[in-house]
Amino acid sequence: MRASRFFISTLKEAPSDAEIVSHKLMMRAGMIKRLGSGIYTYMPMGLKVIRKVEAIVREEMNRAGAIELSMPIVQPAELWQETGRWDKMGPEMMRVKDRHGRDYAIQPTSEEVVTDVVRSELKSYRQLPVNFYQVQTKFRDERRPRFGLMRGREFVMKDAYSFDKDVEGMQKSYASMFDAYTRIFTRFGLKFRAVAADTGAIGGNYSHEFHVIAQTGEDALVYCPSSDYAANMEAAEALALSSERPAASQQLVKAATPDTTKCEQVAQMLGLQLSQTVKSLALTVEKEENGRQVKENWLLLLRGDHELNEVKVNKVPGLSAFRFASEAEIVDAYGAVPGYLGPINTRQPVKVVADRTVANMADFVCGANEAGYHFTGANWGRDCPEPMVADLRNVVEGDASPDGKGVLAIERGIEVGHVFQLGTAYSAKMEAVYLDEAGKPAPLQMGCYGIGVTRILGAAIEQNYDDKGIIWPDAIAPFEVVLAPMGYERSEMVKAEADRLLAELLAAGVDVILDDRGLRPGAMFADWELIGVPHRVVIGERGLKEGNLEYQGRRDEAATAVPAAEMIGFIK
Ligand code: ATP
Ligand code: MG
Ligand code: MG
Ligand code: MG
User: Which ranges carry the Aminoacyl-transfer RNA synthetases class-II family profile domain (predicted)?
Assistant: First the structure.
């Protein structure tokens, strides 16, 4: 590739709405272009990275025996009604009507459609197991789209769905996907961790998330450095609450049993003082998200003299269905949903008072509306007007690991993949059966497996950057090597050598770009350092006269002279 025939558009400054490094750098490197909230055009430089991510995903999915298909983005409501998710998905699912007034969903995920494919196509146990996957556009009307591709509304996901005849088979398919994911994230060249995820009300089911480790991650991961225990914070907390805890924590847990949910009472028992006008209620909302029960933890600050136990929460359909029995006015609501802090939507008119009174409530402990799910020891310190998600902890660094093999450490991660054993949750509702060896119909055992293809770009950058820009791992870099000629137009010698290297590297299968734009060296280097190409070869007359080229890795402090004749071997 020649830079003059590619499209390169870099910026000195990131737009002001870009909050985190990856978003800023992707905007500055001209990888994405914002069209609307959470909606981006993948520019040529960004698309090159996406295609490399997709290629690795496809190779490993195929290697694991999964079969690619592609399901429609616009899906008839009837299918979603069969599983009840048309109502349960809530506002995150985008809906449209056609000219006849019929309802459609824009796929946030595709369990219904794939189950429909399978129930009509699969007849016999002989066709099992089968695993279908797609790499497709998804749309989720996220409550708070942000961080560029990290939490977009339109994004690309690889979603796979396995079907087996029995639980044992499903577990095998799951293990095979788990291994494929491990290979995929290893090949990306990223530091990652697979963690057990809370399965909530689905009970016997089983789930893991794959996280790219990064300071800016929205999720907290709990792990034991001296064993292989690893879980996301929710799962770690659920486990902690159900098992033996140190004496102090147990006392707090007891204090927050359901019949003492009133914060006042909890506070009294613990000898803490609450502000008189503002009370709070911590609660856990269970809702279904993409076929999984998920729990969101919320802290509501309520103004007024109402009794807190009058507050009734309609648990099933999610946040939009909060109903308050009395005239509670929500002063503010803080969700311990990773990364989200801000007002929630309720069907009641909600007045959000700007002047927060959180400071009056320093050091209070909150209760919950449900046995077994509550946070204890939440400390909304005086100096913390915006309570941090990290404060809502029941598991802290240094706690004993549940496997007894050491103490726990906590780090932050970005969820880039999620694997799940679904069992018959969908097949039962949609009557997806196969005929077993005896010719009797039996429900299919299902698993589902997602990878956030476009989110990987953001996650990779959060893990690999410096003050000059992005540092792509080789496997997903937009170009592996940039050839930077000093005076391409001026010097015959430089031009000839640059052209030779371009041709030979291409022939050797290296994804290389020759910067023939005629920029001054400083501007040229700055562009490629910002874009994050991992290897740079400078071709200059002075070096060439001694038979040398200059090589510099993106992380290297200085360039190394490499004989021109050896450069291809050096890079390969
Ligand atoms: P999150 O917790 O970040 O909202 P999720 O648990 O809702 O993600 P899944 O339903 O598990 O997401 O979807 C599979 C994968 O799709 C996720 O692991 C993530 O990598 C990716 N993904 C989900 N939502 C988005 C989004 N809004 N933008 C980009 N990628 C996303
Ligand atoms: Mg989500
Ligand atoms: Mg999640
Ligand atoms: Mg998930």
Answer: 33-473
**Ligand 1 close to Cβ of residue 457 (< 6 A):** no
H/E segment holding residue 42: strand 39-42
Report which of 141, 41, 45 is spatially closest to residue 95, judged by C-alpha positions: 141
For the CA of 234, the nearest ligand: 3
Q: Which amino acid is at 480?
A: E
- Specify the length of the chain in residues: 572
**Ligand 1 pocket, residue 143 CB under 6 Å:** no
Measured CA distances, 455 to 54, 93, 514 (Å): 12, 19, 28
Tell how far the Cα of 346 is from the centroid of ligand 3, in angstroms. Answer: 22
Q: Report the residue among 415, 449, 457 best suited for mutation to probe ligand 1: largest number of ligand atoms under 8 A from its CB.
A: 415
* 543, containing H or E segment: helix 541-545
Q: Does ligand 1 lie within 6 Å of residue 416's CB atom?
A: yes
Nearest atom within ligand 1 for CA of residue 145: 27
CA distances from 556 to 224, 351, 477, 559, 561 (A): 33, 54, 17, 7, 13
Quote the Cα angle for 300-303-309, to 5°. Answer: 65
Nearest-atom index, ligand 1, CA of 451: 15
pLDDT in tens, 384-413: 333 332 233 567 788 889 899 999 999 999
* Beta strand extents in 86-191 (DSSP E only): 94-97, 103-106, 130-139, 154-164
Q: Report which protein residue has its CA nearest ligand 1's atom 8.
A: 415
Cα separation, 249 vs 253, in Å, equals: 6
ipTM of the complex: 0.99
Cα–Cα distance, 236 to 229 (Å, whole number): 10
Residue 450 near ligand 1, beta carbon < 6 Å: yes
